[in-house]
Amino acid sequence: MAGRGRSGDRIEPSFSGRPARDDDEFSLDADDRVITSRSGRSGGSKSPPRRVARQRRREPRERDGGGFFGFLRGVVYWCVVLFIWAGIGVAGLVVYYGSRMPSASTWAIPERPPNVKITAVDGSVIANRGATGGEALSLENMSPYVPEAVIAIEDRRFYSHFGVDPLGLGRAIVTNFAAGHMVQGGSTLTQQLAKNLFLSPERTLERKVQEVLLALWLEQNYTKDQILAMYLNRVFFGSNAYGVEAASRRYFNKSARDVNLGEAAVLAGLLKAPSRLSPARDAEAANARAQLVLAAMREQGFITDSEVKTAMSQTPASAKSYWSGAGHYVADMVMDQLPGLIGDIKEDVIVDTTIDKSLEKKAEQSLVDVLDKEGGKLDASQAALVSIDGTGAIRALVGGRDYATSQFNRAVKAKRQPGSSFKPFVYAAALEKGLTPFSVLNDSPIRIGDWTPENYEKKYNGEVTLATALAKSLNTVAAQLVMYDGPDQVIKLAHRLGIESELQPNASIALGTSEVSLMELTASYAAFMNGGYKATPHVIRRVTTAEGKVLYENTYDSPPRVLSEEIAAQMDTMMMGVIENGTGKSAKIPGWQAAGKTGTTQNSRDALFVGFTSNLTTGVWFGNDDGKPMKKVTGGGLPAKAWKEFMIAAHKGLSPAPLFGNGQLIDNPTNGQPMAEAAPDGEQPVTAEVPRPTTIGGIISGVFGGGENAERYPQAPVRQQRTSQGNGPVPPADVAEGGGPGYEGMVPPGDIGGPQTTSSVQPRRTTLLDLIMGQ
């Protein structure tokens, strides 16, 4: 027992008696001893348990690395492992999705959609048209506030990252995780450009990977300034505006070269949500976002506190929901004509027009002034104006009261009855047949078939000269002149002067029952003003590429003669009488000779005044899109007032010049001697009575004398059913005043003073005149 007890303290023998040993000495421990017999030594069988016990006592020391620090080391280890595997997985995805893309050697920046820059005669921009809505600007050409504002709010480390911003991405992840939903994006401007240039807007892992690859490619091939310029010229700003220039003109009606700090902040704020934050949709939201942009710019050191305070007062309160300004009617007209001149538009082009922007603004203002002052009480809601010079160049065009409300161009596309404003063509045709301004006709009741035209005031003046009849717009005289010369001759002359619309060859054409556009009517009057030359209306003067290559240039500098000088001079003087002592007195311009003609249609549905000075020919129309009658509005009323306001403004600062012929009538065109002007109203004409007509139509119809041929007038002309040319329906003929159920004939214009008589008893007669007139 004692031996067993001592065996626990037993000292194992060694080959040396020294208490210590060096590393190079050889010795045996107890564990190294080989036991040959289980019974040979006392306690030999107990050694293994002792070793086990000793080992158990050492276990706590072997686990000294456990606990919290051991757990932490384990977390770090497994995070590293997961990171490595995640890296491998991401690399695999990049390789996979990258392999689905075309070879990088074929990548190229897509061409920006072509822009059409439309300019006025002074080079200023009227509008931009095309898919983008604005031209591309370099960073140097745009306001410096624009790129600074965009960088501050969208990508503050733009000039330091390599196309992808890990810090920004991490910040966005944390912010979105804390908010519980997407509130911040991590894409850089380069990534956004890559998406806009090459990829679809869908949010998928493949698109995101491809976006990163393309961003890296952009950073490798382009400078930071080039990338920023491409981004600002292509990004969507809402309201169909792509690029900062288009957005600036859309919301502020100015170039991006000229935007101030507050406006730049609004533009930069749009990028987060172009539709929701549009100042045209929600000005309050747009301005609130602009304040955040200004704060970001201040934080980045782009602006100072004082500049922030100044910018607070610069942010626009609102913008119209659509393009505004009369110039956009011109821009639409240009875009309609451009393909026919240069074909498909494949690159940026500049269209130089004939428009004078100052005249354009004056024209728009004159219509608005008259409509605001008197339009409401007279039930006139719309107006249009065209002003043309002697060459046919359109200097001002207004297609309606407000382009933002309605984009329909009433000056060009709407066709309506011109009423008595068509009469100058009737008188000019009569002069060509040998009559003169002093030829005398009898203003008395007449009947042409079943049609009995009456004067507007239902009064008759007896014998009058042509000059007096035109000044007073006498319907009976105009109807006689048409029958004297024949409707076909009047139509030929009207087409020769510039009327392009189809005209009906009937007697009532004398009173303007065939529909025409305001633009063609006005351009035709220009032939009277310029001495007898055709004035083809045109608005496009030249088309060039951005590099200056001429693609088109108009050739209207050598117009054909369509009237003799003598007849042009006579017509000018006769139409001067309209303004001096006739129906157009409201159009008098102090210090200037002016000529023109009024026109009013059935029940004042349309009212026109077309007139000219030696500088401009201008036509004005008032009415309603749905054909609703106005309250006794005539061509000498609202249209003449608006015409006068515009023409006075247009001639401000110019020296007065006489009309062609200097306002004098020619007695004998062959000798050119001047003749006295028309006798005052009520006085006897100074010339002998005009010879009776010798045409077949005049002899058979007896229009000029009545007598035994009084019952042989042609049948009343028949009107085709009128269709709407405006933005609303036009009442059918059978509900027009003076008509009624079963009334299928022509509805005469309003210049006819009384109700129209029809006969259902008298049978239609087929006479030689009927055959000649095509009845």
Describe the structure.
With 775 residues, the protein is of the alpha+beta class. It is 37% helix and 10% strand. It contains 23 helices and 16 strands. The longest helix is centred in the first third of the chain and has 33 residues. The N terminus and C terminus are likely disordered.
Question: Could you outline the blueprint of secondary structure elements for this entry?
Answer:
Blueprint: H1 2-7, H2 47-62, H3 67-99, E1 115-119, E2 125-130, H4 145-154, H5 166-179, H6 189-198, H7 205-221, H8 224-234, H9 244-252, H10 261-270, H11 283-300, H12 305-312, H13 327-342, E3 349-353, H14 357-375, E4 382-388, E5 394-398, E6 415-416, H15 423-432, E7 440-443, E8 462-465, H16 466-471, H17 475-485, H18 487-497, E9 516-517, H19 518-529, E10 540-545, E11 550-553, H20 565-581, E12 595-600, E13 606-612, E14 617-623, H21 638-650, E15 665-666, E16 674-675, H22 696-701, H23 768-773
Parallel strand pairs: 1-3
Antiparallel strand pairs: 1-2, 3-10, 4-5, 4-14, 6-9, 7-8, 10-11, 12-13, 13-14, 15-16
